Amino acid sequence: MALLTPSDSALPREAQGRGWRRRLLCAPSQREVLRACFERNPYPGIATREELTQAIDILEPRVQIWFQNERSRQLRQHRLESRPWPGKRGPQESRRKRTADTRPQIALLLQAFEQDRFPGITIREELARETGLQESWIQIWFQNRRVRHPGQGGRAPAHTGGLCNAAPGGCPPPPAPSSVAFTHIGAWGKGLPAPHMPCVPGALPQGAFTSQGSRAVALLQPSQAVQAAGISAPAPALGALCWVPWLLRKWDCPTLRLLGGLCTPTNARKTRTHRAVACWALARWDSLGPFQLSHRTKMCLRHPRPSGVAGGAGAPGRQGGVGTRRWGSSTSGARDPGVLRASSTDASHQAPSQRLQKPRH
DNA sequence: GAACTAACATAATCAAGCC
DNA sequence: GGCTTGATTATGTTAGTTC
């Protein structure tokens, strides 16, 4: 059943090794099967997806993407019509088995990651050939790698224009633990009092950074953050907020491991100490004013990304249809609201992506 | 040009498996 | 139990295709 009809359009970006995968055009019959399956279960496990792959001749990763997009559409539609989303029903289908030991191939991937953190389809397929791994696995590997090793690797995504994913050439080495002071991510605090750094090429000094990918989080240089917070301590040449999770791991610093009860992820044991991003615990910008000394040693976990905060592949300039959701209105029972989230409902929590416009290209 | 939608991005989380 | 890391989710943007 050869129903795949990729377009014949030119792929100049792919030719450069940075392009997107060629679009899959679902035939009506394929879509029908997918929709029928979606009706039965919008969250198919690997077994079902594999079955679909066999049935309609669409690769499993494409099936997975289709279900992601379809869920997104349906969820949006349900919200618009104020209908409850049925969510997961029936017994949970099993996940894909963890990919076996990939150590032999990792070196090659690391090398590729160093050169380019956002490989296009051509490069990913090339890596897949060389390693014998699936291209979709490589894509996931890069996703996870970018999140967990923000300071490593090469260029920012091509589509982010002037935004950088890290300073050119990656983040600078982290400062010594003794002098660390963390920046404040205004996006998740209330009433960010300080100016935003412009995110245009050349505007950010070495070591400054924007958030991952194109998610244009307003940020401060450490010195600015300290200044804004009224901290008199000398501002270290802190390179990047993106180091924080890394620091948490590497330094094993108890002062960075406080407030375990602040967020209550289901998997708290595994996430509590790692998924932290810098924000000064208890230091509510609006209510407490300048930091008090007692706050300096406290870190809190960042609450989950609020709905409406752009997490997407590109510029924040456009208002997506889903982007108007208020915080705390998650439709997913799986996502932990967290303590901070519960108090984060006012309009000052505007998504950073809505405040910081990325120059379009 | 607008609408639709596959592809891709993120953060957050779950969970397997190793130490 | 702590940690690493593969897999999955929700959500948002980009860009190709169709009308």
From TrEMBL:
GO terms for molecular function: DNA-binding transcription factor activity, RNA polymerase II-specific; RNA polymerase II transcription regulatory region sequence-specific DNA binding. One of its GO terms (biological process) is regulation of transcription by RNA polymerase II. Residues 309-323 have a biased composition (Gly residues). PROSITE patterns: HOMEOBOX_2. Its main location: nucleus. It comes from Macaca mulatta (Rhesus macaque). The keyword Nucleus applies. Keywords: DNA-binding, Homeobox, Nucleus. GO terms for cellular component: nucleus. This is Homeobox domain-containing protein. The keyword Nucleus applies. It is found in: Nucleus. Residues 342-361 have a biased composition (Polar residues). Residues 17-77, 92-152 form the Homeobox domain. Residues 19-78, 94-153 bind DNA. Residues 77-101, 303-361 are annotated as: Disordered. PANTHER family: DOUBLE HOMEOBOX PROTEIN 1-RELATED (PTHR46123:SF3), MIX-TYPE HOMEOBOX GENE 1-RELATED (PTHR46123). Coiled coil: none annotated.
